[in-house]
Amino acid sequence: MMTKAWFLLVSLSLMLIYLGLVCRNSSLLALAFPYLLFSLGPFWRKMLRPNLKVQREFENVFLPDGQTCRIKISLTNGGEALDEIKVVDLVPRRAQLEGICEYFGPLRPGQTISLDYTIHGLRGKYEFSGLFVSVGDLWGLRRREDFYPAPGTLTFFPQTENLQKIMISPRRTRIFTGLIKSRESGTGVEFWGTRAYVPGDSLRHLNWKAVGRWDFLITNLFEQERIADVGIILDARRIGEVRRGKESLFEHAVRAAASLAKYFLEEGNRVGLLVYGNYIAWTYPAVGKQHYARIMAALAEAELGDHAVFKEFQNIPTRLFPPGSPLVIISPLHYKDIFPLRYLRALDYQILIISPNPVAFEESLLPHDQFRHTAARIANGERNMIISRLRRSGLKVVDWNVQQPLRLALRTLGEKGRCLSG
C-alpha cells in the first residue's frame, strides 16, 4: 500500500513534467526526473510479510470486577531488519487501560519488544483478537498492514457478599447427602420419630427410656439430610433498568445473583441459573467449584435485553426446574409480573423474590427539589401494591434498597421468612 508521501511525490513529478512540456522548459523536465525515479524505488523490491512471533500473557484470566489485570505481549522479529514498524494491540472497547499498548520504531533481526499494560475491568467478558502491524520502508513511501492473531479471553465476574442462613425445605430433594432436611427418616442428626426395633438396627439408636416404659425395643429415627435443586432467575429485561451515568440497578441485581449462587453452592446444593431477558441463558444445575466458575462466567456475560418474547414472565420455561423446587427470582418487578409469578406459585414452586428497589435507587440519584418527594411517594405506592399482592399469594418478597448490603435486607424475612418450604 502506497503512502500519502508517495502520491505527493508522484504528483509533484507529473506536475513538473506537465509544466516543462507546456512551457518547453528543459530545466523543469530535468528537475522532474529525480522525483520520478525516486517514486519508482518502492517497486524495485517486494515487501514481504514480516516473520513475527507474538505471545500474550495474562496475570490472571478470571477475577472479580473492580480488580486490575496485567497483560504482557512479547513480539519477536524472526526475519530481516524492519526500518519502521507500528504495532497496536486491538484492545476491547470497554477496557480501561493504564500503560502502553502500541509500539512505533525500528526492529532488528532477533529483537524482542514488549507491550506491558494494565486493564481495570468492569463486569464482562473481554475477547482479545490480536495485533495490528504496519511496516513501512526507509523513505516512508510504502507500507504493508497485517494482522497477527494473539487470542485471549479475560473475564471479570461480579463481586459477592457473604449471606446469612437461608433455610430451604423443599418437597423434593435429590438422593445425595447434603444439609437440607428431606422430611424422610434416614441418616441425620435431627430427631424424627421412633419405631419398633428390627434386626440390623444400630444399638446406639435404641431409645432406652421408651424401652423401660413399653417393655420392648424401640429405635430412634432421624431426619435424613440431602441436597436440593435451587433455581436462580435473573431478570435481565430492559424494562426494569434504571441507569444514570455509571450507576446501574442491573449491576446490583447481578451481584445479588452471584452472592446467592455462592451461598447455595457452599451449602452443597445443586444450583441452576437462568438469565431471562434478550434470550434464555441457562446454566444447568450442578455442584462444586467448577460449576461456581461456570455460573460466574454466565453472570459476567449477562446483558439487558428487550426481546418481545421475553417481555413478560409468563414465558419462563418451567420445564427447566423440578416441580416443588425452590426458586429465587431477582427482579425489580413490574405490575404485569403479578399473574405469571402467581402461576409459578400455583405450580408448587417455593419462590423467594429479591426485588432491587428502582424507586429508592433513582431517587438517590436525582437532585433535591419540590417534585422529587411527591414523585417518589406515587411510585412507591404502586410498588407497595405489587409487593402486597404477591405476598398475599404466598410468595416471599424482599424489598431491597441497594444502598444497603443484601444480607441486611434478608433480615426483614425473620427466621421463619428465611425458610423456603412447600
Question: What is the gist of this entry?
Answer:
The protein is an alpha/beta fold and 422 residues long.
Structural summary, described in words:
This protein has 4 domains: about 5-45, no CATH class; about 50-155, Immunoglobulins (Immunoglobulin-like), CATH 2.60.40; about 190-225, no CATH class; about 230-420, Rossmann fold (3-Layer(aba) Sandwich), CATH 3.40.50. By secondary structure, it is α/β, with parallel strands linked by helices. The protein contains 10 helices and 22 strands. Helices cover about 30% and strands about 35% of the residues. The N and C termini lie far apart (about 70 Å).
Low-pLDDT sequence parts: none
Helix coverage percent? 25-40%
Distance between the termini: 72 Å
Q: Please state the overall shape, judged from the principal axes of the Cα atoms.
A: elongated
Q: What profile does the largest beta sheet have?
A: 6 strands, mixed
Total helical elements: 10
CATH fold descriptor of the largest domain: Rossmann fold
The CATH class name of the largest domain reads Alpha Beta
Domain tally = 4
The total strand number stands at 22
Q: State the CATH architecture of the largest domain.
A: 3-Layer(aba) Sandwich
Strand content: 25-35%
Strand pairing plus helix content: what structural class? Answer: alpha/beta
- What kind of assembly state do the chains in view correspond to? single chain
Task: Please state how the strands of the largest beta sheet are arranged side by side.
Answer: 18-17-14-19-20-21
Q: Averaging pLDDT over every residue, what do you get?
A: 81
Integer-rounded radius of gyration: 34 Å
